[in-house]
Amino acid sequence: MKNQKDSKLIIFVRHGQAENNTKKILAGRTPGIPLTEKGIAQAESSGEFIKSLNISKIYSSPVERAKTTADIISKHCNAEVVIDERLTELDMGKFTMMPYEEIFAMHGNVFLKFYDGNPAIKENNVETFAEVKERVGDIVNSVIEKHHNENIVLVTHMDPIKAILSIVLNLRPENLFELIIANASLTIIKNYDGKLSLTAINAMDPERYNHTF
Question: Can you spell out the DSSP letters for the chain?
Answer without folding.
Answer: ---GGG-EEEEEEEPPPBHHHHHTEE-TT-S--PBPHHHHHHHHHHHHHHGGG-EEEEEE-SSHHHHHHHHHHHHHHT-EEEE-GGGPPP--GGGTTEEHHHHHHHHS-HHHHHHHT-HHHHHTTPPPHHHHHHHHHHHHHHHHHH-TTSEEEEEE-HHHHHHHHHHHH---HHHHHH----TT-EEEEEEETTEEEEEEEEE--GGGGGS--
